[in-house]
């Protein structure tokens, strides 16, 4: 099941700028081992869900997993072979803006080796570089 907001104030949002580093959500808060973003970027809800599923499969549904990001940014695109102008395109998918240092996933209740393997496969599904923190 893909993540997306139930309601949003505006249907389409301006692109804006990505922040370089995260200073608020950069530490472990819930779990004992976490997957942290090394660089800033945009992660789609599909990538986030793929990473979550990969992690859950590796830990065999033991322990507890927290997802610390939510895709609340609508990404629009225009259909192929459409002339310029005529406004902004329709919403194609939802994504999450991620700053460098942001904690993406946290886990507890499993062994260190299992968590390492799980986060390695989960990190491979994301479009940004990640690192595992304890």
Report on the structure:
This protein has two helices and seven strands, in the order ββαββββαβ. The chain is of the alpha+beta class and 134 residues long. It has a domain at 33-40 and 47-69 and 101-133: Alpha-Beta Complex (Aldehyde Oxidoreductase, domain 3), CATH 3.90.1170.10. The protein has a four-stranded antiparallel β-sheet, with helices on one face. A three-stranded antiparallel β-sheet has the order 2-5-4. The longest helix has 14 residues, at 45-58. It is elongated, with a radius of gyration of 16 Å.
Short description:
The protein is α+β, with helices and mostly antiparallel strands. 20% of the residues lie in helices and 28% in strands.
Helix and strand content put the structural class at: alpha+beta
Cα separation of the termini: 29 Å
- Name the average pLDDT: 94
Strand content: 25-35%
* CATH architectural label of the domain at 33-40 and 47-69 and 101-133: Alpha-Beta Complex
**CATH class (first level) name of the domain at 33-40 and 47-69 and 101-133:** Alpha Beta
Poorly predicted runs are none
Q: Give the spatial strand order of the biggest sheet.
A: 3-6-1-7
Radius of gyration: 16 Å
Overall helicity: 10-25%
- Indicate the overall shape: elongated
Tally of alpha and pi helices: 2
Report the major sheet.
Answer: 4 strands, antiparallel
Please trace the helix and strand order, writing H or E for each element.
EEHEEEEHE
Q: Care to count the β-strands?
A: 7
CATH homolog superfamily of the domain at 33-40 and 47-69 and 101-133: Ribosomal protein L16/L10
